[in-house]
Amino acid sequence: MSQNATTASAPAPAPVILTGDRPTGPLHLGHFVGSLRNRVAYQDEYRQFVMLADAQALTDNMDDTEKVHRNVVEVALDYLAVGIDPTRSTIFIQSQVPELAELTFYYLNLVTVARLERNPTVKTEIALRGFERDIPAGFLTYPASQASDISAFKATLVPVGEDQIPMIEQCNEIVRRFNRIAKRDILVECKALVPEIGRLPGIDGKAKMSKSLGNTINLGDSADQIRAAVKQVYTDPLHLKVSDPGHVEGNVAFLYLDAFDTDKAALEEMKAHYTRGGLGDSIVKKRLDLVLQEMLEPIRTRREEFAKDKGQVMQMLKEGTMKAREVAAGTVDEVRRALGLSYF
Amino acid sequence: MSQNATTASAPAPAPVILTGDRPTGPLHLGHFVGSLRNRVAYQDEYRQFVMLADAQALTDNMDDTEKVHRNVVEVALDYLAVGIDPTRSTIFIQSQVPELAELTFYYLNLVTVARLERNPTVKTEIALRGFERDIPAGFLTYPASQASDISAFKATLVPVGEDQIPMIEQCNEIVRRFNRIAKRDILVECKALVPEIGRLPGIDGKAKMSKSLGNTINLGDSADQIRAAVKQVYTDPLHLKVSDPGHVEGNVAFLYLDAFDTDKAALEEMKAHYTRGGLGDSIVKKRLDLVLQEMLEPIRTRREEFAKDKGQVMQMLKEGTMKAREVAAGTVDEVRRALGLSYF
Question: Does the keyword Metal-binding apply (chains A, B) (predicted)?
Fold first, then answer.
């Protein structure tokens, strides 16, 4: 609620979550830890919208639109496999809700170029992609698009990493600016929901597990692929002999066990043993392989089940998209009226 | 057609015109000379779309959305009054064709921020409005929106002033870039249609007749208002006595007569007389008043007729908007398919 809210006495709206992914490749353990696992929990507590952000993915994939198209159903399969339930979450395709583009169009008038250029998340992403002065306008302005995605569903909670908090702030600035123009609180401010467990490193020890870095374990990976990946997992480069004391900090095998091993007592014991020396990497990795295989096997099996009938998955997406459109269309209608863009 | 057109052997499409106005105030003689008069002629030769650009008007009128809303029907009345015929031209309201916002959203990925910042028209307009670094993003990106308006209707001709030619070039760049991605010519390049008669100066002699400068004669002005305005028309400040030789160049009274007096012989005679001395401003202005009254009286009368039933005017706009939507939706469908954004 903005400080000058005129409806301060109205009851707080039920929490609504907006979350999603850019369908540019298979989802991996990093997604699982950072968001997917939480979504499965959230869907019981909140009204949850899960967006396949194909239109947003195009902002830097105009040279490979086919990749984005192909991955929509793949990511949907990942969702279903981990237990996101279309009867409890609304899963939809961004581009098929054109109301989101319409809202973005209006929000572009509510944010200055200077403000967009100051957005730390945008700055970082621009540097990461090496755009420099050749930033596509759609990339610079994507905070307006995100504000549209969030506010169209009047989402109050947006699960994001620490680094995405400036996007949430920018969204709320747009919301407040719009409500000031509308002279009433039509749009709703949201809060970042930062997961307790931070980012999962890649198997190579790099800070981020990322498809483009080739250091992922994907949710759909076969048992053999998982085994091969675990073998490559970065441990302690100074731990040369089994008898040497090893380091647990920055050791990806232990970081993964921290994230996924439910037997915390055994894990603590293993860490102590590794630290004082006498525990080989192969034992640690054997445990990691076991934990990951046990966790990913049912996910992979469900994924394969759902993948047998992609038509049904598309039907599920169609129904979710229709539901999402209805909500977004309601917001667009309010926005248009407030801007005097209602005539007939 | 782009140089790498793959359909070079296909017949050229029928000429389509996209034109329109920002509904921010009543239309005036400047509009009449620069565009309205031509549109009445074009509608017999071409398929003509006439857009009430309310959404674009918001880019710098977010502080007065009511003004934009109110002027939609007023500008539509001006159109009808001058003879733009809804059975021969498709008159529509931009914001009610959300497909235009959707196209804009995609086109933002096809133009860089640097390119938008180099656009001379945008540069000039930014300077004019004193935006400096606080340009609304929607203002910087409005060439993408214009490209959307033009290409949605596959317009091949766009009537614009000399100063708007960079906008047309930018539109064509977006069209070519899109067609390259689509690997076929889905969108159509357009040409600027620059009117033979240039810009009409204001009654005060300033280069541009403009509502914001308060130097207009509006199409709906009463006979008294026209008479009062003609009295104020800037002539020759050195022509103090009737017997003095007068200057025709830069003399707004004669510039207006050049634009509107159909009796060219009498006008030439009057100019010669004025130049050699012995012809008072009052005689010239009397002629100008007569010419303008004769020209504007039937326009005003028709305007008043149509204004009696604004409901009917809105109905006409609704029908035009539906027709426009159908065409734009067809283009959006092609664009979506080409970008892989088609699923169900």
Answer: no
